[in-house]
Predict the structure of VOC domain-containing protein.
Amino acid sequence: MLDHIGIQVSDYPAAKAFYTAALKPLGSALIMEIPTEHTGGAGVAGFGKDGQPAFWISDAKKRAAGSNDAHVAFAAASTAEVDAFYAAAIEAGAECNGKPGPRPQYHPGYYGAFVTDADGNNVEAVFHG
C-alpha cells in the first residue's frame, strides 16, 4: 500500500546527519538527494535499503505556502492506477499538486500524481515502471 513517506525538518543539514547516523544500524542509508532546482530550493533527501528510498526529509524553511508537514505516497500497480487515483482524488475534493506524468528527475520510469488533501497534506500515487 505505502511506497514512501516524508517529513519536514527545521534544520536540513543537521537532520540529514542525524538520520544518516541513526538509520545506519537498521541497514538503511542515504539513497538519494533531489537537486534543489526541482524542489524550489529545498534540501530533500531519501533514506532506505537496497536502492529504494522509503523515508524522506525536506527543509521546512522552504515549504510551500499552505502545505502541511506530511507527505505520503501510495504504491500503484500501473500508470492507469495513478491516473485513476488522481481523478478520484480531484473528484473527492483534493487540489492538484502535480498532474499525472513521468518524473524522470526522481528516476527513469517514475510516474506519479500529487494532490493536496483538505488538511494540506501532500498525497501521491506512484508507479515505478
Notes: Strands lie at 2-9, 29-33, 44-49, 52-59, 71-75, 95-102, 111-116, 122-127. The mean pLDDT is 90. The CA atoms of residues 58 and 116 lie 17 Å apart. The two ends are 16 Å apart (CA to CA).
